[in-house]
From TrEMBL:
Binds 1 [4Fe-4S] cluster. The cluster is coordinated with 3 cysteines and an exchangeable S-adenosyl-L-methionine. Binds 1 [2Fe-2S] cluster. The cluster is coordinated with 3 cysteines and 1 arginine. Residues 333-366 are annotated as: Disordered. [2Fe-2S] cluster binds at C98, C130, C190, R262. PANTHER family: BIOTIN SYNTHASE, BIOTIN SYNTHASE, MITOCHONDRIAL. One of its GO terms (molecular function) is 4 iron, 4 sulfur cluster binding. InterPro entries: Aldolase_TIM, BATS_dom, Biotin_synth/BioAB, Biotin_synthase, Elp3/MiaA/NifB-like_rSAM, rSAM, rSAM_sf. This is Biotin synthase. Pathway: Cofactor biosynthesis; biotin biosynthesis; biotin from 7,8-diaminononanoate: step 2/2. HAMAP family: BioB. [4Fe-4S] cluster binds at C54, C58, C61. It is an enzyme of class 2 (transferase).
Amino acid sequence: MESIRNNWTKEEILEVYNKPLMELLYDAATVHRQYHDPNTVQVSTLLSIKTGGCPEDCGYCPQAARYHTDIEGNDLMSVQQVKAQALRAKASGSSRVCMGAAWRNVKDGPEFNQVLEMVRTINKLDMEVCCTLGMVTENQAKRLAEAGLYAYNHNLDTSEEYYKEVISTRGYEDRLETIENVRKTNVTVCSGGIIGMGESVEDRAGMLVALSTLSPQPESVPINALVAVEGTPMEEEKPVEIWEMIRMVATTRIVMPKTQVRLSAGRTEMNREGQAMCFFAGANSIFAGDKLLTTPNPDVNEDMEMFKQLGLQPQKAFVKAPQPETIEAADSQFESLGEKPKWTRPEHTIERNEAAKQKSSLAAKE
Ligand code: SF4
């Protein structure tokens, strides 16, 4: 087994990405077999615990308050609602629940306390708990860890260079800082990105440089294909071709051999043959459930049928890392600090984001 490299260059990654496809697939499948059981796929359920109304301007996201999309927003779910959904997810084969809140960053207070209680509740169901709540401070990451959080998701989305074409309300360094804060705990890191946002192949390689040079590399890397939602600045982007997805998955597998590579948004556009090639190329995780936060996803029965057809087994919980302990709120070592960290606001102008914002305010006046 080769050791994990944390010094991949963009040129080397491009060389891998652009190999003749059969060679790329063979190499990726070979690495995959060295580090993982090729017939096991981890299944996560993504739950939007607070939808819409987000102050950020991510150009791909229908939850940004500034764009006019059809999604229905909702306030933070109750712990009981989340527990019911987690039990349902467990019964249908999920080993992990990932809770997403449309926040710029976590704010100390009753809502965060409620999320901590959700983490405790799901960990006690013996499921892996993941959260994606925006930027977090070190103290907040420690409080999440203490509650029993297994993974924190914070995507880099794309390369540092292209990030400025996607988001203007925060900087790449904020993302990296949050990942660093999570790394100060035992919580595993989930961080990946989206292809199909108008970025070049160099940008895709650039994102893989940023992820693979993190030490340690993220334990899971979701690879999303943009779902172009009407009303968002990226509504007119062309769908990602399956070949691009396969190349991206295979390259990710080669540069991050131990990582769980997750097929995420955009799976409804992929047929079974395409998904099978992605699994062969090293994808070993999917999101289950008919919705991914706000965009469509294949339903659970369809996925289980696919697993049967391909001879795949859902991965059990805590196979890759032990189950964290849950400390009750009353015994917590970390208090709420009421911090007001200064995350950056680059506030540069992104033409298509501005155009979508204006279109949205005109629509609101009609
Ligand atoms: S991706 Fe997250 S941070 Fe960006 S607008 Fe959507 S909900 Fe907000």
